[in-house]
Amino acid sequence: MNTKFDDPHIAVMMAGSTLRKVKSRSWKKQRHFRLLEDGLTIWYKSRWAGRGHSTFSVTEVEAVREGHQSEVLLSIAEEFPASHCFTLVFHGRQGNLDLVADSPEEARAWVQGVRKLIHKAQTMDEKERLDQWVFDWFQKADKNKDGKMNFKEVKTLLKMMNVEMNEEHALHLFTMADKSESGSLEIEEFVLFYKMLTQRDEVWKVFQDYSGDGEKLMLEELESFLKIEQHEGEQSGRRAKELIGRYEPSETAIKQEAMSLDGFQMYLCSQEGSIFRPELLELQQDMSRPLSHYFISSSHNTYLLEDQLRGHSSVEAYIQALKRGCRCVELDCWDGHDGEPIVYHGHTLTTKILFKDIISTVKEYAFKASDFPVILSLENHCSVEQQTVMARYLRQILGDALLVCPLGGHDLQHLPPPQELKSKILLKAKKIGGLESCPDDTLTDEVSDDEELANGDADSPSTEDPPAEKKTDKKSKLSRELSDLVVYCKSVHFHGFDHARSHAKFYEMSSFSESKARRLAKEAGADFVQYNMRQLSRVYPGGLRTDSSNYNPQDMWNVGCQIVALNFQTAGLEMDLNDGLFRQNGGCGYVLKPDFMRDATSRFNPEKPEEHQGYKPLRLAVQVISGQQLPKVNQKEGSIVDPLVRVEVYGVPKDQAREETPHIQNNGFNPVWNKTLNFVIHTPELALVRFVVEDYDKASRNDFIGQFTLPFKCMQTGFRHIHLLSKDGTAIPPSSLFVNISISAYT
């Protein structure tokens, strides 16, 4: 990254600083940190550990917090002043790095320096990004740091890059790039070597099919490619001009209104050439429907960073979930010492957090990723006294953001829309009476929203027995102050669909364990869909999932359940599906359900999709052409991946399917499959498609390499790149798949 190294803050980082790395009140160790010459990598080591060191890239850092802005730094606030402290927050699920500098000036240099570098990394265009990538490889491979690379270093580099290549071919490319005939490559020559190495024959073939002279695509040739292959229709002419202006690096070509192979490849690798329709990434859905007409990104046991029995509870878990666009977080509330309510996983060894600290965190982070409403799902095990304390904190800390009465001018027949609840926080809990009435001051009821018990799924193991008085006293009082804060999300027991049709109020909502929700979906799918048009329902993982594993949310979305709560802290297929569904619509955490899940006359049943009125099945063909620069899974010297691609479809039961390519031996750099996988999609509006790349292993389970998941309706057809994500859901550039997607009517 050609950063201005005359910047004083970055100069401090490059010179290096001794900073204290803090993990807890008792673990504070000095480490030497410095920014490497690439202007991107931060290197650090302990002063004692011989040659051992660690590095991370600025691109992995999401934000820098100044002062005591993490639990760890708050715990040592008396020892180190805020002006010396800062926190690096990473993308994905990686833990924070809490650091203390020797002086305020040094802390400020690191805070400002890292922020500048993050900004620089985010604003690089495709070409700069590629140059940076090449420069990084050069730095890694130039072992003796003489600014040149001999053939031996090049061979080591190919292994590092996941390339299996015979020596003869490698030497041939090396010699062609060595223009100065010096027996080694300088950076400019290395760029040429890299270009020859990464030349994409499969892209060149597509280019050749439309180029008259094999050198460039004239405007009308590019237009016909866009019309025929990319299905751009009437706008192809206008788009061809735009794309040349945006991606063509050669001034000469631009003057001729033409696109070179370089420009063509750059377009195909860009956001516009990606599989996700760019306009659907923006906030573009109708946000004026009742809340019950949306899927809502929701987290279960939000306070946990790990498992359910001994895991660490942390306000950081709330920050991570809210920043990912989660719009419903859970608080498991219990009586604490000194009259202070606490949040933790009851009757287990998970650590405890103060209720008021979580509410302060929610206040600060609720609307950073999205303006749309956040629901606080309260699982309340507190005495009346501590419930009243909770109510006081909610009012004091959240202030006007807390919704405490129905919206003026809104009819009391339907839930209000997200649009009208922007920047509002709603409470989901038990309530005395309803919106219409004001009964007596106290109500004897089961205060606890204790999920497993409430729904007859007694599958909640814990590491200790509940105290005797808890067992006998299932009935306890509800605090009027807390009850009054519940407006549109009153927790009630579910008494069946018939009862709900005749008696339920629109603001009443029930929670279902995954097993109960799955059973209802199978036995009464159409009724469940109807029920979810008018009322909210929340689904949560069964109590046996003490490892914080997740269930497949698709089964619940198929019947229109809105609040499908997952353990956000656990990476894997289920969170990939959640991220995939909520990637659209500006990542705002709300996705409008298909019209047949909002129309009261519809009798859609996911078990029998062919019976619904607008049934129009589609055929999906995915030609998996090639892969680019897949990451190594095994860091062992000389190990190279054997990649295969699996395409998985999730949707109504009839749509669940998976097909895979054969594996390619020893090539993670530019494997070519050219294999077409076919699917029939019965309910396109609900289907999600997941592309997974794995390292084939005949002796044990394949290793995960990368994945990308998106709604079927958000796919662009034609030649597309799929930019892969890590297990954690973070980008791993420049790893990608090149595919050709076609969708047609199924007859």
Automatic annotation (TrEMBL):
Residues 467-476 have a biased composition (Basic and acidic residues). It is found in: Cytoplasm; Endoplasmic reticulum; Membrane; Nucleus. It is a peripheral membrane protein. It is an enzyme of class 3 (hydrolase). It holds the Pfam family C2. The active site is at residues 300, 345. GO terms for cellular component: endoplasmic reticulum; nucleus; plasma membrane. It comes from the Eukaryota. Binds 3 Ca(2+) ions per subunit. Two of the Ca(2+) ions are bound to the C2 domain. Ca(2+) 5 binds at residues 695-697. GO terms for molecular function: calcium ion binding; phosphatidylinositol-4,5-bisphosphate phospholipase C activity. It catalyses: a 1,2-diacyl-sn-glycero-3-phospho-(1D-myo-inositol) + H2O = 1D-myo-inositol 1-phosphate + a 1,2-diacyl-sn-glycerol + H(+); a 1,2-diacyl-sn-glycero-3-phospho-(1D-myo-inositol-4,5-bisphosphate) + H2O = 1D-myo-inositol 1,4,5-trisphosphate + a 1,2-diacyl-sn-glycerol + H(+). Its cofactor is Ca(2+). Residues 438-476 are annotated as: Disordered. Its EC number is 3.1.4.11. Residues 598-726 form the C2 domain. Residues 438-454 have a biased composition (Acidic residues). Glycans are attached at residue 180. GO terms for biological process: intracellular signal transduction; lipid catabolic process. Its main location: cytoplasm. Ca(2+) 3 binds at residues 301, 330, 332, 379. Residues 482-598 form the PI-PLC Y-box domain. Residues 11-119 form the PH domain. Ca(2+) 4 binds at residues 640, 642, 666. PANTHER family: 1-PHOSPHATIDYLINOSITOL 4,5-BISPHOSPHATE PHOSPHODIESTERASE DELTA-4 (PTHR10336:SF31), PHOSPHOINOSITIDE-SPECIFIC PHOSPHOLIPASE C FAMILY PROTEIN (PTHR10336). This is Phosphoinositide phospholipase C. It comes from Salarias fasciatus (Jewelled blenny). The gene is plcd4.
